[in-house]
Amino acid sequence: MSVKSPILDAKIPDGPVQQKWSDHKASIKLVNPANKRKYTVIVVGTGLAGGAAAATLGELGYNVLNFCIQDSPRRAHSVAAQGGINAAKNYQNDGDSVWRLFYDTVKGGDYRAREANVYRLAELSTNIIDQSVAAGVPFAREYGGTLANRSFGGAQVSRTFYARGQTGQQLLLGCYSALMRQVDAGRVKLFPRREMLDVVLAEGRARGIVCRNLVTGEIEKYAADAVCVATGGYSTVFFLSTNAVNCNATAAWRCYKKGALFANPCFTQIHPTCLPQAGEGQSKLTLMSESLRNDGRVWVPKTKGDKRPPQDIPEGERDYFLERKYPAFGNLAPRDISSRAAKEACDNGYGVGATGFSVYLDFAEAIGRLGESVIRERYGNLFAMYHEITDEDPYRMPMRIYPAPHYTMGGLWVDYNLMTTVPGLYALGEANFSDHGANRLGASALMQGLADGYFVLPATISDYLAEHRPDGMTTNHEAFTESVKAVDEQTKQLIGINGKKTVRDYHWELGRVMWEKVGMARDEAGLKEAISDIQALREDYWKNVKVGGSNEDLNKSLEFAGRLGDFLELGEVMAVDALDREESCGGHFRKEYQTADGEALRNDDKFCHVSAWKYTGDNKTPELHKEPLEFDDVKLTQRSYK
Amino acid sequence: MSVIRIWQSTVGKKVVMAVSGIFLMLFLITHLAGNLTMFAPDDGALFNQYAHKLESMGVLLYVAEAGLLAIFLFHVVAAFQVYLGKKRARAGGYDRDASKGGPSKLTVASRSMIITGIVLLIFIPVHIWMFKFNAGQEFTYTEVGGEEVKNLYAVVVESFQNPWIAFGYTAVMLLLGLHLRHGFWSSLQSLGAMSPRWTPAIYAVGLIFALLLAGGFLLLPLYFFFFGEIPDAGMGGGL
Amino acid sequence: MKFQVKVWRQKNRQDAGRFETYTVEDVIPEMSFLEMLDLLNEQLLKRDESPIEFDSDCREGICGTCGLVVDGMAHGPKRACTTCELRMRNFSEDKTIVVEPFRAHGFPVIKDLVVDREAFDRIIAAGGYTSVNTGSAPEANALLIPKDIAEKAMDSAACIGCGACVAACPNASASLFVSAKITQFSLLPQGAAERKRRAVRMVEQMDREGFGNCSNHAECEAACPKSISIENIAVMRREYMKGALAGA
């Protein structure tokens, strides 16, 4: 049994899980409506979590300062989510309920999430749909005019709401429009093209941020009564991922370095159906809907290094490895299992394509059985996209796919109120660790972002603000001066090194280490190697990186340089966390801990806890703090997909 | 909301252009119908009679002319405002400029609206001076249906004997066709009357309309240049 | 593959700007246009030359961040495609590729190929929303919206706000962008209460931002990576006139 760290008080309300949120809301301290405008709240990020929070705080009457690195809030990476958003509306009358969504999410997270948080998420899911519809989100509808649903990611009920393949975009535009309404009303002030580079602490509380104006290069400072970080996940630590090229961990990482604990950094999700890398010039990987696996069969040649075109490889010489290893689920085996199996096949030399790092996803059998028109109807847009990118026609020859990092479950540790271990510093959405445990279910990321932004934070923040009245804090406080100085020095340092290798060269190298040793299947030796590799790379980076340009105007190479500096630290902590967690669960698979069938083997006795890491200084191993997880409502069981 | 504010908006301006443009197109249709009477095999009697009927409307004609002038000026002023707005909005052009095709209706016609428009703006006073005022000379008179009427027909036929006038007029009519090719469909789009179902049809009708009008107008100078004979002054043909 | 690219370089807003021609080697046909520029930038950095600044983010055609005028066409020669989705196999090595920023008074150049599109945000702030506070939304299925109407609203809502319509328009008009949002809300019952006010305010904000007038060239529809129809512009005009005449 894990021992609870004294600094990790999750503040989970008492009472039955169904009552916790409503009871808590009833007991939260409130800020008088007339006083709200006297409070300033900083929200960093304008995705589903940040955008919804900034808009809602503005509606409540707070004075909000909202920052983003993009040129417009509408471009936050939430925009790229395709599939949909879960909600326990039970419109299909198929037995869904808040309880079932709660149960599925806890189980899907492989029992490494807090029950209380997950229940609240399931409860709020229905309000999110109401709110989004009211904002004008054009969800898919039935002929009768009611909302349509589909089943997603192997769920047994149809609870996923969607707007074509652009659900993330439409939900984001919904909360972006609410945000712009507050901008128009003067309650939210927008700061686009700003990158948060530090959180400023005074008397132990978060009192503002320091950021770089990405156009002028100026280091700017902003004071507030509370700071909310909603800056997304850190999949780009792998260099190639399905995330946008500007996604980064810098804001969250700088919070970590100011004392906020970072939880479960090793919990990352790898998506099995992405387009393979075409060459060294590749900048990101493109995700294709997992639904392709409903009709496609995954295979590699039985002979190593078989370079024959797929159509020339006879049936008997093909290894349909998912069907072979997991006969019950076959090609529909869960994300982590499918991803791992594909990587293993390629690592062993069976991979196909020019690089040898892809496996076939073959529709020939489905086309033969159902006809090309049915396949076209089901996947026409995905096939077209694949054809456009690869110049190969998937109706004629099998697709080639490869797994890619997609989402990170880990993030800043937060309590039930979404506050980090730093008073007044909140983390929302993918930037926190709270709701998905060791593995996130499909169509749940959008749900969490909006739940945090629209409903949780705007309710819980008043509890803190009511206790900490505005005290005339300005950016003249010496804490700001110090922070600006440190940020400015680091920026100049990066420019000044003027070494031999570019930021991209280093990022590429870090990505390779992370992918090979801290990727889908990890082991002790590999993780130890990764730690020393990353340390060496980091040391070299600060001596030999070439950034170019100036710090006094728009310089994207400099932006990437700062972010990579943080990834070179975060990557190590991910490896440290993965090494410490001697079990396999969800997205974290340790080769040493698997069942005879190759299934993840959890160790609930020793690792049924959140691992939160505390910064102890540069180049020092962080300190581990544990928050034990208690399961009162969902029984711990081992999953099986055989 | 004041009418001025509506005019000042980009949408309002296009509505002004569209409405005035539609009136001008209607006028062109009646004008062409009148012109075509010249092809009646009566040495211009029908045409002269038509012209006389118009003139004898008296005050009403002046009102109609003033109205037409006002509509024309609305069209011209809005057009120049649109053009100046465009100049402000896109100060520098692209080094290489190309159309993506497909649904694009970016054509020589749409791009040259301001040029064809300016040509028409210059042409119209000249045209009026030439035919309404016979370039400052006295009209001859002829008898139609027992009435003494101006022999406008003779003026037209005589003018088009001059190759400069005949071919100049033809060229301008080609430009008018170009102007109408974009103007016809554009006016309906500006009024918000379009839908994907109708747009291709209306765009095609716009082409036919432009061809018919320009063709109709330029038939006259070409016909009279090649086949026209100056009718004897004072010799009125019978109906 | 090896390409000659002629790229617009401009230090800052005030700078007059000029073209520079570069050679990029080791390009593979699968590369996206932006990956080709990434490669060129790496080569420039290593030669101690300043890299070409351009905006991009998701690199899969949904965020609307990227946008270049390639060979005189916004987002390049392929239709229904953003610059990040454009592949190098669409180009021939024989011809120099010309790369320019979106040019419009409403989109001032910040540096090289990066432009300022905040005008679009201000237009949305002028009315591109429904005024419903968080928490006051009615039950989602209380509002029945016929499937075809929802689909039409989605067609308009698909706009990614990239600004290619402005870049492609000979008049630098923002009509397609503005009309797509006005049309989306004009179709849905959610936006009905403020429909007239919205159309008038958004159009007037668009005008204040210095975008040109729409002359119905329809080049915007051809350039739009999401193929948004100019029918939206027709709808915007109807909505505006209804609003304006009603005194909204």
Compose a concise summary of this entry.
The complex is a heterotrimer of chains A (642), B (239) and C (248). With 239 residues, chain B is mostly helical. Chain B is built from nine helices and two strands.
- For the largest sheet of chain C, list the strands in their spatial order: 2-1-5-3-4
What spatial form of chain A do the alpha-carbon principal axes imply?
globular
Low-confidence stretches of chain A: none
- The portion of residues forming beta strands of chain C comes to 5-15%
Q: What gap, in angstroms, lies between the N and C termini of chain C?
A: 58 Å
> Helicity of chain C, in percent?
25-40%
Q: Report the biggest beta sheet of chain A as strand number plus sense, adding barrel if it closes.
A: 5 strands, parallel
Number of helices of chain C: 8
Which pair of chains has the greatest number of interface residues, and how are they split between the two chains? A-C, 80 and 80 residues
Task: Explain how this protein is built.
The complex is a heterotrimer of chains A (642), B (239) and C (248). Chain A is an alpha/beta fold and 642 residues long. Helix content of chain A is 36%, strand content 16%. Among the domains of chain A are: 270-405, Flavocytochrome C3, Chain A, domain 1; 478-608, Methane Monooxygenase Hydroxylase, Chain G, domain 1. Chain A has helices at residues 20-27, 33-36, 48-60, 98-108, 115-134, 167-184, 250-257, 321-325, 335-347, 364-370, 372-390, 445-467, 478-497, 503-517, 524-544, 556-580, 604-607; strands spanning 40-44, 63-67, 85-86, 160-161, 188-191, 194-202, 205-213, 219-223, 226-229, 262-263, 268-274, 297-301, 318-319, 359-362, 399-408, 411-412, 425-427, 501-502, 521-522, 545-546, 589-590, 609-614, 623-628. In chain A, the strands form seven sheets. A five-stranded parallel sheet of chain A has the order 5-2-1-9-17, sandwiched between helices. In chain B, strands 1-2 form a two-stranded antiparallel ribbon. In chain B, a hairpin with a 2-residue loop joins strand 1 and strand 2 (147-150). Chain C has two domains: 3-111, Ubiquitin-like (UB roll) (Roll), CATH 3.10.20.30; 118-245, Fumarate Reductase Iron-sulfur Protein, Chain B, domain 2 (Orthogonal Bundle). Chain C has helices at 33-46, 118-125, 147-157, 164-168, 175-187, 195-208, 219-223, 231-245; strands at 3-9, 18-24, 69-70, 73-74, 97-100, 109-111, 114-115. Chain C contains eight helices and seven strands. In chain C, a hairpin with an 8-residue loop joins strand 1 and strand 2. The chains are: A alpha/beta (642), B mainly alpha (239), C alpha+beta (248). Chains in contact: A-C, B-C. Chains B and C meet through helix 1, helix 2, helix 4 and helix 8 of B and strand 4, helix 6, helix 7 and helix 8 of C.
